[in-house]
Amino acid sequence: MGKFSALMIIIAFFLLFVIQTLEVVNGQCYGSLAGNSSYAQNRQNLFSTLSNKVLTHGGFYNASFGQYPNKVYALGLCARGYEPKACSNCVEKLTFETQKNCPTTMDSFVWGSDEEERVSCLVRSSNHSFGNLELEPPVIGVSPDHIGPLINITLFMLQWEYTVNKTLQAATKANTSVAHKYYSASHAEFTAFPNVYMLMQCTPDITSHDCNQCLEACLKYFREQFRGRTGGMISFPSCFFRWDLYTFHNAFVNVTRFPALPIHQDKEISTPDKKGRSMLWVIITIIVVLTFINVLVFIGFYKVNARKRKINNEKNVGGAEYSDSDGQFMLRYDLGMILSATDDFSSENKLGQGGFGTVYKGKLLNGKDIAVKRLARGSEGGIEFKNEVSLLTRLQHKNLVKLLGFCNEGDEEILVYEFVPHSSLDRFIFDEGKRSLLTWEVRFKIIEGIARGLVYLHEDSQLKIIHRDLKASNILLDAEMNPKVADFGTARLFDTDETRAETKRIAGTRGYMAPEYLNHGQISAKSDVYSFGVVLLELISGQRNNSFGEGIAAFAWKRWSEGKPEVIIDPLLVENPSVQIIKLIQTGLLCVQEDATKRPTMSSVMVWLGSETITIPSPKAPAFTESYSQSEDGTMSMSIVFTELSSR
User: Which of 5, 15, 230, 464 is deepest in the core (most CB within 10 A)?
Assistant: First the structure.
């Protein structure tokens, strides 16, 4: 069994290595020909603004232009999880492809994907309105690779069908999103391959029943004609289906991994006849028996070698074992490995200190640098420990700090993170010597990255999370100065349909906390929006929030009201585009408005950051003003115990 499993893994990785990506653009020109050039000109006029319209309408837009018989209908759609710039580029590319390849054809559709930008989009045009199911013509792209002769094709197809059924159920269950009404992305583990990814989407202008019919038509091609391939793409004018052995879209950071063939769920699997069900039970029985034997062997081996492993833990490069909590796998580090990596928490390795503990730099025996947060003994840091472990193991985004593992031996509670070489943002923006390194291009990248991370937390991850302590010292900068939101010890987990909550225990930093939260304990995504606005204004001014007696929001508002917003701009940025910077001051003031309902969402902020032509609202007065007393280290924080998340 061991040799067979090893062989399967080798085959899987070999296929992943040689797999060829599908065509980036899959489209079709069809229907009647235009009688004259007026149709093409009307389409060009409509396409010229389509990408911007898609962004401003949340990812989907349809419109018409001209008069019969040369009236043109067009729509654009970006798959969920898109980044504004990538979505805009994708739509613009497809409008160009349509005009190039279908110069005189009235009907066209093209589903495209950019592998580098990890975005998918659709552009359609026609001389008739949309809204009805269209199943012709199909556009097909299939991987040239086959599953392989050593892989059980029967078991593979059973797992494939199970994953397809789950994805289809989710895709055809209409949700509240207008743009992504019918949409689902799934990530499964198969016996033969470590990962399988699927994406299904329908245009939001058809019914749930029609969406199901369209996607079933896509699946029919794989069931009947392309059985045994390692991936493929099928699209109609009304829907799109793709699956592969690697992530090809940003949406896959938002899905939870699930087994494709769970034990005791065979009733959900499409088995064509009794022979298939019998084969399934035989396979399940073999897997259960072999797993049970392996577990017994592992337990015996673990007990025999426990003492030896503890003494010689340095021989294990990872120094870790896997622990399962709520279905999530986390890396547990031995305390001996942590002590060795940090030189017994030596002062030379100390990176900084927070309210709940101290952070040290460490180096594992394999040479990998890590950051180790040692929570203070006897403090309330245990709540922070549970928060970060339970949340960060289920969050994966390039603008969030990555939790590598943890250690909780004896009275030690330790969190192990990826090492971010440039430390925190406050050590650059508030340092007279280092601030010059933050050019406007770098500052804009940091602002955009923070916003992107918050959009993921609020809207795009499998969890809905309010950070509650966003500030410059909790933004880490990697080697390329990309920001990573850190410190989730006081974060609040929301239900997916929950928009606001209340607490009697306030956690965060004064000056960055929204007034409704500080004064009344009201928590929402708009609480983070307020904090983001303060950080944005700090980045533009190069000054701490508490450097202004009334607060940076009030100071910026007064200068804005006087018609002198440029006064707030860091003198180091005088040679940079003031129009763009002033627009961001306006964005920051919108984020810190007193009425939380008037503040924008972070997804709206992302749209504003990605467009130079969108007109944004005029801001109102900031939430409140107050004087700040500054401590010796230049900070003023209020960290109060947070106890609610563990019970959720």
Answer: 230
633: domain range?
426-647
The catalytically annotated residue of 114, 205, 334, 469 is 469
Query: How big is the chain, counted in residues?
Result: 648
Q: Which residues are annotated as a binding site for ATP?
A: 373
Task: Kindly state the percentage of the chain with pLDDT values over 90.
Answer: 31
Predicted structure pTM score = 0.50
Binding residues: 373
Q: Predicted confidence band at 252 (pLDDT cuts at 50, 70, 90)?
A: low
Between CA 159 and CA 167, with CA 165 as vertex, the angle to 5 degrees is 100
Last-in-domain residue among 418, 452, 474: 418
Q: What is the mean pLDDT of residues 495-517?
A: 73
**11-20, 62-71, 176-185, 462-471: least confidently modelled range:** 11-20
Q: Is residue 554 part of a domain?
A: yes
CB 426 within 8 A of CB 634: no
Pairing between β-strand 350-353 and β-strand 239-244 as defined by DSSP bridges: unpaired
Same-domain pairing of 436 and 301: no
- Asked if residue 326 is part of any domain, the answer here is yes
When pLDDT is cut at 50, 70 and 90, the band that residue 643 belongs to is very low
CB 372 within 8 A of CB 341: yes
Please say if the pLDDT value at position 325 is more than 50.
no
Check whether residue 296 and residue 355 sit in a common domain: no
Of 2-6, 132-136, 185-189, 553-557, the one with minimum mean pLDDT is 2-6
Helices (H), 474-577: 515-520, 525-541, 552-561
Element (H, E) at 107: strand 105-114
Domain end, chosen from 249, 268, 287, is at 268
Q: Residue 460 carries which DSSP code?
A: I
* C-beta of residue 360 within 8 angstroms of C-beta of residue 341: no
Mean pLDDT of 45-68: 90
**pLDDT at residue 645 tops 60:** no
Average pLDDT of the residues in 328-336 = 70
Same domain, 205 and 221: yes
Annotated catalytic, 469?
Answer: yes
* Angle, CA of 267, 271 and 276, to the nearest 5°: 115
Contact between 405 and 321 under an 8 Å Cβ cutoff? The reply is: no
Instruction: Identify the three-state secondary structure at position 403.
Output: strand
Would you say residue 242 lies in a domain? yes
Structural domain count of the chain: 5
**What are the DSSP E strand ranges found in 426-524?**
464-466, 475-477, 483-485, 492-494, 500-502, 522-524
